[in-house]
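User: Predict the structure for this protein chain, please.
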Amino acid sequence: MAKRPYRYRNIIHLFTLIIMITSALITIVAFAFLRGMQVLPAGFFATIWMPAVILVVANIISGLAQMILVPRVVRPIERVIRATDQVAKGDFSVRIPENDVAGEVQELVHSFNAMTEELGSTEIFRSDFIRNFSHEFKTPMVSIEGFARQLKRTDLSEEERQNYCNIIIEEARRLMGMSQNILLLSKFENQQIVPDKALYRLDEQLRDCILKRERAWEKKGLEWELELAPVTLCQNGEALFHVWDNLISNAIKFTPEGGKLTMTAAENESSAVVTLRDTGIGMTEEEMKHIFDKCYQADPSHSGEGNGLGLCIAKRVTELCGGNISVRSKKGEGSVFTVILPKENG
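Assistant: Here is the predicted structure, written as structure tokens:
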């Protein structure tokens, strides 16, 4: 429906040109007739003749200019309209050439192309998120169902029964952790500010987070090196706890047995800086680009524990607190995560 006015725009301009020229000619003929009838005073036509000629020429030039220039403006706009129809139907791959337009129209086309590119990325991201999360949710459910069926067998030994029960408990905890992370992410994504800020000691919080994961890092024989200067923050400690807990659990997960973890905390006049270095498997450049995306896991087989939401939560909380989080890594040489936070986020 939106295309029809533009389809007949050239015809409209043609009729406009014809009418303008016809009107000018009628005006000239009328003046000539009046002169022949001697209705007008002597010298009047000579005075009017030149403006009349100019009027005719101006009308012709104006009409031709409209015929030539207006379609050059209308054509790309018509392309935008057609492309918008395609986007409305779910096709985010459509692009409009930018090399044959200029000025404000070029800005419009450029903005449209940027919009469709972003929509396409969002759609891919949404599809990946659904696929990955479905996989992560299905795996523990299959385990729970399978081992629950095994428990119905009457020929199981007590050791087997206990082993199957422990697996079911662990998988149930995994589901609970996944649900908790989804709720946390939803909560933080819907917030624009972090409430309930108060002064607290950041270095003490970091030590508490490390102790909470003591069982995991002791099991792998990991060594800790701490350089935690006394740092006082005015932030929401409960929210920031999720940042440190996710970073520490990730570092433990991806560091092989006997590895080393190094955490530092320092401050300047306005900011606190926390770094966590591991001697783990590291990441490629491509993996670093997506490490903070929802449900992203560098291991496509999803063989490790986790659901790919922890670092996304860490990034969102850090941003809400007015800070930023970054990563440096090299495959096979470990990773370094750096979090910078304002000491007072008014």
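Strands lie at 198-201, 223-228, 232-235, 260-267, 271-278, 324-329, 335-342.
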